[in-house]
Amino acid sequence: MADEALRNAFTVDVEDYFHVSAFERHVRPEDWERWPQRVVGNTARLLDLLAEAGVQGTFFVLGWVAERYPDLVRRIVDAGHEVASHGYGHRRVSTMDRQAFREDVRRAKAVLEDAAGMAVWGYRAPSYSIGPDSLWAFEVLQEVGHRYSSSIYPIRHDLYGWPDGPRFPWRPLGEGGLLEIPITTLEWRGLRLPCGGGGWFRLFPYVLYRGVLRRVNRHDRRPAVFYCHPWELDPDQPRPLGLDARTRFRHYLNLERTEGRLRRLLRDFAWGRMDRLFLGCEQAGAGPSLRELHPEVAHG
């Protein structure tokens, strides 16, 4: 039975299996069209799960996907979910300069708003790739018209992460500016542990994961931000050749169990959309501003 003390954010990064950053060296963007497209069916499965549980969440949709499947975006909207942006071409922010990033997010926002028929306020960087060296991205997001971002995972990881970044919502551009809502972590005995979803959700035993998430709710008194991908419900997805052992482990671990675990998660916690949970600012702490953290990029 769901713990109604706090409502958490259920989020989905809508991309296909071949879009993931770990496959970059094996599946080139110019070859994406050649791979079997499975994102529509897998997203439909997630939508059905959420409908069964009576949960509405936020779907960060890749512009590349929305451009090809606008009916999928409409289905997400019609089910009562929030549509947000995952950028256009799944390029990590750390690989782009300011102009390239602006073009990517502007294009994605236009495609999504055209398909959804409503404003798109949220953004999530592919592979949580906004970090201390790319904080200028917040200024671009605000210029383009986004009101919030969920692009920082404050952990240590070889592909992403800002280990000492803020754990809870903050306004990097100062009061009244864009809100950054980090992926959820747990601090325990001096360690910062990931508990926001994705591969970590598939790795840890469900009972342990549930306990960690409850501790965040009850000890920190904060909503958690959980994320998953449609391809995580698809153990039969095509597999690129040449992947190293670590990538295979991370990507394919327990895919056959994901749907069952999600059913339990949806039942055990209360969930909601990012815009409704956070844009009222009740959870936004004072936090450090972008200018305080990196004055050299504040006006770059």
Give structural notes:
- With 300 residues, the protein is an alpha/beta fold.
- It has a single domain (9-293), classed as Glycoside hydrolase/deacetylase (TIM Barrel).
- The protein is built from eleven helices and ten strands.
- The strands form three sheets. Strands 1, 2, 3, 9 and 10 form a five-stranded parallel beta sheet that branches.
- α1 (39-53) links the parallel β1 and β2 (58-61).
- The longest helix is centred in the middle third of the chain and has 19 residues, at 98-116.
- Tally of contiguous helical segments: 11
> Residue ranges: pLDDT <50 for 5 or more in a row?
281-288, 293-300
Indicate the CATH architecture. Answer: Alpha-Beta Barrel
In total, the number of strands is 10
C-alpha Rg (nearest Å): 18 Å
Give the count of structural domains: 1
In CATH, the topology is named TIM Barrel
Q: Secondary-structure element order, as H and E?
A: EHEHHEHEHEEEEHHEHHEHH
CATH class division: Alpha Beta
Query: What distance lies between the first and last C-alpha atoms, to the nearest angstrom?
Result: 49 Å
Helix/strand class:
alpha/beta
> How helical, in percent, are the residues?
25-40%
Compact description:
The chain has 300 residues and is an alpha/beta fold.
What distinguishing features does this structure have?
single chain, 300 residues, alpha/beta, TIM Barrel, five-stranded parallel beta sheet, three-stranded parallel beta sheet, 11 helices, 10 strands, disordered C terminus
Topology (elements, then pairings):
Elements (H helix, E strand, L loop, with lengths): L2 E12 L24 H15 L4 E4 L1 H6 L1 H9 L3 E4 L12 H19 L5 E2 L12 H9 L3 E2 L29 E2 L4 E4 L2 E4 L4 H5 L2 H15 L4 E4 L16 H8 L5 H11 E4 L1 H5 L11 H4 L7
Helix pairs in contact: 1-9, 4-5
